[in-house]
Specification:
By secondary structure, the chain is mainly α. Helix content is 53%, strand content 11%.
């Protein structure tokens, strides 16, 4: 039996269309290092979980997570304190619009990315007094080089919505099957879920 409730990880690639589910007791960096390798040379789209910090590869922060944090601050901040999260929200939305534009040439995207990075640096260098804004600013400073990675890497989406979409069916299956309660159940679950989702994403249907 599993000694304690394990964690469900998902690794989803845009191309090739591949989804891999992994069930491990650990929530640390050892899991992505195990799956991707310590010398992984690709770009990893991530949320703000600290376990990814030790990965030496290029990383891109999920803009949706950052927008959510900014929105949460805007719900409680008043007057001048709302300026910082509003400015961060505006920058992120501008960056996503640049990514989604079909009219911009690569050199134009690169130039706009540098402008956005410059504006972010100015915001983070400002005098931020409100405690919640300061916590958000510390996170942004720590990951400053990862915030607009999606503008530099064509295959990288602004958010990790792909991974979250892929995770949802596996979570539902877990609730219905109670498949994590034993090591053998967890092993079977991760294999079937990986094969099933990868097949579905590629337009293949498994025999029943």
């Amino acid at each position: 039996d599993c000694e304690r409730r394990p964690w469900l990880w998902v690794f989803a690639a845009v191309e090739p269309r591949l989804t891999l589910f992994v069930i491990r007791q650990s929530r640390g960096c050892d899991v992505p290092q195990e799956i991707l390798g310590v010398d992984f040379a690709g770009t990893l789209g991530i949320d703000g979980w600290a376990g990814y910090d030790q990965m030496a590869c290029r990383k891109g922060q999920c803009a949706a997570h950052l927008l959510r944090r900014a929105a949460e601050l805007l719900e409680v901040q008043q007057r001048g304190a709302a300026r910082f999260p509003f400015a961060i929200q505006r920058l992120l939305l501008e960056a996503i619009a640049v990514k989604r534009s079909a009219e911009l040439a690569p050199q134009d995207v690169a130039g706009l990315a540098e402008q956005l990075r410059g504006q972010l640096r100015l915001l983070l260098a400002g005098d931020i007094q409100e405690p919640a804004n300061r916590r958000f600013a510390r996170h942004l400073r720590k990951h400053e080089g990862e915030i607009f990675t999606f503008l530099d890497v064509p295959a990288l989406e602004p958010t990790n919505n792909l991974a979250e979409r892929e995770l949802r069916p596996a979570v539902i299956l877990r609730k219905l099957s109670a498949g994590y309660r034993t090591q053998s159940g967890a092993h079977v679950h991760q294999i079937l879920a990986s094969v099933g989702r990868t097949a579905t994403r590629n337009g293949l249907y498994l025999p029943t």
